[in-house]
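User: Batch of two.

Assistant: Item 1 of 2:
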Amino acid sequence: MAEKVLILGAGMTGLSAGWVLSENGFAVELLEKEAEVGGLARSARRREYIFDYAPHCYHASNPDILQRFKQLAGNEFVETPKDVRIKFRGQFYHYPLQVFDVLRSLNPFTTFSCMADYLAVLLKGKFRGFSDRNAEEWLVNRFGRTLYDIFFGPYSQKVWGIPLSRMSSAFAQHRIPYPSLGGILKNALGRFLPGRAGSTNSGEVTDFTQGHRFAPLVKRLYYPRKGAGFIPEKISQEIKAQGGKISLNYQVKRIVIEKDRVESVVVVVDGKEVEKRCDHLISTIPITELLYSISPPLPEDILRACSRLQFRSVVVVCLGVKRRPVLPAQSLYFTNRTFNRVSDLVRYGMLDCAPEGKTSVIVEITCDEGDRIWRAEPSILCPQIIEELEEEGLIAKDEVEYFDLLRIKYGYPIYALNYEEAIKKAANFFSRISNLLVGGRQGLFEYIDMDISMEVGLAMAQCIIQGKGKKANFSLDDDDVLFC
């Protein structure tokens, strides 16, 4: 009889794990609390428009993941060069921020101050190293105080809702690319000596910024014509074709553990409790929900520590616009508006998001669950956002023929100071449970993108298939980001 694997959550991580496990003969069932699969990568169909919960692109950083994407998408995807910009002091710049791109447009005094700070910290880091006690210090130590004060600090506090002095340095370290000293010198040389290192035939300057595995520098994007949700829907079809089961509208209530093993999961469906037994359990639901679902309850010190783990929520304003395209780039970031990012899905290659001559525009606003933005009605918030977009010269009010809101409760994990302590306590507990694997963006409390989420799911499946011993790892400092 095939071993039974229960998977909590049918986002990209859970679906990817279920896909491989079902292919290898395991009896797989995914339990999803929403009415559709995909998690953050799903698409919402509204009238004649399709809206993604955010732009969810694939890229070539991991060729295995890209190959699986192409296998699923067939010919239903578009490849485009990445073009994302941020508005800062009245001008648009490439994003992630390229230092010389900013410096050349500032007034001479500010430019000199930024450059002096910037080169000083680059030299200090090269020869003395840094001591980074929080995200603010990490950024100041890489970009200098002046650039931090006029750009990184104000924008990051707007997005995250707390000062970076209260956030762990792990956030900045793994989400914000920064230039190497050698790259800066090559870049500068290329500007003054055409044909030398740092310049290209097209006249563009090579990007010497250093990326990270969780936020790799991406040059080209791959996007489904019908939206990000096309991929999880295709994976769910693959799982069902192999005999797997996907159960929607199932809310996890209790995870029963006996003698350091998961024995069963109790879920609520249609108002009734149903108990499901399993040989293996994969959890991709938010770590906080998982911890409070354990039965018998966890020790108070673990729950108290993990109560500090919080997520930033997101409200997405969806606009159906009678023009295509609307934006000059795929996405535009703003530092002084209600919203953080506005994206034109046609620009990404989502050509079937709207009828010919129209496009789907999504506008993201970070917030806290229950605050004014979270509780806002579409009839109030959407016109406000449309007015701000009109002030930016991007959209005219009479071009918008449809609007609505999408809400994401668990958007981004907040890397508050000392969050690692809570993660360590959770990791120590999970490592004792022999048949439990934890993964995914919300499950790992890691700000990872869709490609990495898929990679984590595939790796967890291999842990079960190969019967590997389990190693608890919940650290951003290592490449292995799952329990296996």
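Item 2 of 2:
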Amino acid sequence: MNLQKLLQMGQQVQTRLSEIQETLGRREITGSAGGGMVSVTVDGNGGIRKVVIDRAVVDPNDVEMLEDLVLAAFSEAQKNAKVLYEEEIKKVSGGLPFPMKLPGLF
């Protein structure tokens, strides 16, 4: 393979990665905790979009439980976003291991 073709392939992959990053930014992934009492929605890049807390778990005498539920919901949402990211990267790389991470993602 000549250098020109290799450079073209690199540009195509870079373009596709930019498209994936943009697409992931528009996707919404939700994680929840406490049987759905707390949910966190993130974009496909892991950025927080929304937090929903059921009034039933708001107890001023047990703030730690609410903090734990928010943290658990956020962690699940981020995990789900990472899985989505990895699936999209596999599509670009043809299933081959892709060690490069996009800046600012996971």
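The chain has a mean pLDDT of 85.
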